[in-house]
Predict the 3D structure of the following.
Amino acid sequence: MVILSKIYTKTGDDGQTSNANNERVSKTSPMMEAIGAIDEANSAIGMATDEYNDVIERVQSDLFDLGAELAGAPTITISENRVTYLENVIDDYNEYLEPLRSFVLPTGPLHNARTVVRRAEREVWKIENINPNIAKYLNRLSDLLFVMARYHNKGKEKLWVPSNG
């Protein structure tokens, strides 16, 4: 349980912050860049829709776990079963969708959240010696958001038509 009684501490005013082990690290370190990108992804997902609440809440909690693990929290680990959960949800939604015949023109907040998650995944790959399930989770999460966006936009989806000139 995290208890925050004071929001500002002034300890980050010098460009440093503390990881889960209370070690001081640069706010621009690859770890902190990845944690920040995951935080942005979490916010984007929260803004995406009021639907799918159970899935969205589970994902948002998982994203806090990802950030905590990256920060060195000793008791939090993203396991393969979190990736499998996403795959199962993707499969459930995908059953209601027609196969794609072209790329989808991205519209709406779920597609936006998907691209933010993709950026977070790229930032995670810059960190050495991480749990590979973290990057796998983000990869599947962007797939889930793509499928959810397709489901949400069903019947209104626009496909890319390549120009010939």
Remarks:
- The beta strands are 16-18, 24-26.
- The chain has one domain: 22-152.
- The chain has five helices and two strands.
- The first strand starts at residue 16 and ends at 18.
